[in-house]
Amino acid sequence: MAKVGDKAPVVTLEGEGSKPVSLAQYLGQKTIVLYFYPKDDTPGCTVEACTFRDSYQDFTDAGAEVIGVSADGEGSHAAFKAKHNLPFVLLSDKDGSAAKAFGVKKTFGLIAGRVTFVIDRQGVVRHRFDSQLKVKEHVKEALTLVKQLEQQPAA
To answer: Catalytic pick from 8, 13, 45, 135?
Structure first.
């Protein structure tokens, strides 16, 4: 399980056009807000994604990239992004290997977990927020920390 202070697992997942996307490509360049969510276009996940969308400029202005991850495939992600005008990357974790690497557990053993990580430019997990129900808090907490990280002098 990825805990605060740990090096984040470097995973490679399927992105748009079935192209592999590795978290390693962001290291040293941007803070990563990596959020795992249960399923495209469900009520809670839509609220969470749209809240990230509405704050996306604030994240990018603070030097961060938002990346959403679920087990849904590329077609589902593309439809979800188009329907809700989502400006950030959605990646597919079809086999659950990334969720497992990060320690994202299923709720009641059935529903995919909802966990948000803030990973600094050096690849260290700086924040972990785990709540299936407080969907807007994921965005609020992540943005607060991203802004704090941006204000810190570079090492």
So the answer is: 45
